[in-house]
Specification:
The chain has about 425 residues and is of the alpha+beta class. The protein is built from twelve helices and 18 strands.
Length: about 425
Amino acid sequence: MPQVRADLEALTRIPSVSLDSFDQKHVDDSAEAVAQLLRAEGMDVRIVREGGRPAVIGRIPAPDGAPTITLYAHHDVQPPGADDDWHTPPFEPTERDGRLYGRGAADDKAGIMAHLAALRAHDGTPPVGVNVFVEGEEEIGSDSLATVLDKHGDLLAADAIVLADSTNWEVGVPALTTTLRGMIRVVVQVRTLDHAIHSGMYGGAVPDAITALVRVLATMHDADGNVAVDGLSQGTAADLDYDEARLRLESGLLDGVSTIGSDSILSRLWTKPSITTIGIDAPSVDTASNTLVPSARAKVSMRIAADEDPQHAYELLKQHLTDSAPWGAQVEVSLDDEGAGFNADAQGPVYDITRSAFRDAWEGQEPVDIGVGGSIPFVAAFAEKFPQAAILVTGVEDPDSRAHGANESLHLAEFERVCLAEALLLDRLGKAVTS
């Protein structure tokens, strides 16, 4: 584990932010660093790029009669945000109170190192075939993943696929993620005028676009905060103990601010649709003038039930928004991004072996099946490409990891359990065939 941690820290120091506005040389450097780590374990390694960021594929062939396992992680990271929001520099990994802080320390460079730890536990000669696939653009939507899977899918075909980019239920309780919501992201543009005009001279008779936009956005929820778009699917989450106090603690909900929606909290978080306004284009407070703004835009993110068709959900949302235009305002809705959800039938020998590996790595703690309200479109892409493979969505994170936020961190003791569980998984999958 000391060497695993040292290598994790070295990867975390590479600011491999995949957004176009950041220096992409760092993403290239990150891919090469991952490739070197895989080569050191005796893997046949190649770096592939299909119009997007570089991905790394490493392979160890299966012994005769043994299954093959594909291990997924990603080496790109989110932007760090403002340095002032971090207690320590985001790309200088720092330990505090048993946690390693740094951008990518959890999401998802720890996933890479969990795979390497499992290989090292077997001295580079695991009892199963192993493919390692480390993507370089997960944080920007995996746009070239479909092409990579189409052109290089033969290098990744497997009996089971471990996708290490999720979370555990809590520190000390491992989890398999069996459901993920899908996602729709749209841009809503509202126009009321062909040019800006004086708010004193025309206000009161002429509507401005910002007010019209706000009224359109306000129709997306009912008075209780439930999504008000008709026709969307709604699922029911597993019956696990998760109360409002835990939600408030983990989310940072301010005192006096109520939760929204109805049904169980986990259903609201995991299986029911949700809608969030994530950005608005309008004059800033500091630069605003006394004018009626002629047009305004908003970006809206909608999470959808795992079994909902994304295109169908988009059409429902588009119809709702255009029908909600006040005062005859012109409303245009364009699709920005979409991703399918995932719902696993997590039964069978591979899942049983996985749960036994978790149980032993966590010293007898029974694992739980969880859902995740966020969307990980690449999971559905793998499930579609390899329909016969058991899809195992695992994770190195916990509710305090703050992935994507300032002060992202990895619980080091939990990380060791993750590494041990994956090493046990490879061992037991190999023994299951030979026994």
